[in-house]
Amino acid sequence: MYKRQVSGLATKYFAIEDADHVAIIGAGAQAHTQLEAVAAVRPIKKVSVWSRNIDNAKVFAKQYAHQFDVQAFALLSDAIRNTPIICTATGSVAPLIYLQDLHPHVHINAVGSHTSSMQEISAELLKSSVVVVDQLSAALAEAGEIISAVANKQINQADIIELGSWLLDKQTNYQYQRSVFKSVGLAIQDLSVANVVYHYARLHDLGTLFELH
C-alpha cells in the first residue's frame, strides 16, 4: 500500500508533466501497484514490461491490454529505451538500470530491492541523477544501491533529498532533470495510510465490523 502511494507522489512531482509511457521492470504484485500509482498522476497510454521470465511479462501485459497499449519485452534495454518513467520492482542483487538508452529526463521509482545486499540502479546512473529517498536513515541502512554509491563516493549523502522534507517548500523544480526515487518502505507511513482508510470507512459506513476473540 505505502509504496504505491509514495511512488505516485514522487512521480507527480519529479516526472515530466506530459509523460505518457512507463516501463515496468518486474511482473510481481508490486509491479501492478506501481502501474496504478503512475497512471493515477500521469496520462499513461503506453506500458512496456520486462521480467526475467518473459511469460510473466506476457501475463502482466495481457491483464492491462484493455487499458493501455502494453508490450512485453525479452530484453530490458528495449523496455526502458527512451521511456520517461520507469518503475523497478524486482529482487535484484545486481544493478539492472544503467545510463544507456535512458530518456534524458527520465524519472525512476525504484521500490524492489530493499536490503543492503540488493541493487536495481547502477552507481553511474545515481551519480548523474537527482536522488530522492523516503527517509535518509532508512535508505542508508536498507537500500543497497544507495549504500554502495555513498561508500564509493559516487554520490554525497548531503545531496540526497528526503521526499517529505522537499515537499514542505518545493523550492526547486526537478521535472526536467534525471531523477531516481528510492523507496524501502516505512511502517509509520503504512500506518498513516491505514488510518486514513479506516476513518474514511467509518465516516461513510463502509466495511464490515468484527470482534476479536
If you had to describe this structure to a student in words, what would you say it looks like?
The protein has 213 residues and is α/β, with parallel strands linked by helices. It has one domain: NAD(P)-binding Rossmann-like Domain (Rossmann fold), CATH 3.40.50. It has helices at residues 2-14, 29-41, 54-63, 76-80, 123-127, 136-142, 144-151, 163-167, 187-203, and strands at residues 21-25, 46-50, 69-73, 85-88, 107-110, 130-133, 161-162, 179-182. The protein has an 8-stranded parallel beta sheet with strand order 3-2-1-4-5-8-6-7. The longest helix has 17 residues, at 187-203.
Main attributes?
213 residues, alpha/beta, Rossmann fold, eight-stranded parallel beta sheet, globular
Question: How is this fold's topology laid out?
Answer:
Blueprint: H1 2-14, E1 21-25, H2 29-41, E2 46-50, H3 54-63, E3 69-73, H4 76-80, E4 85-88, E5 107-110, H5 123-127, E6 130-133, H6 136-142, H7 144-151, E7 161-162, H8 163-167, E8 179-182, H9 187-203
Parallel strand pairs: 1-2, 1-4, 2-3, 4-5, 5-8, 6-7, 6-8
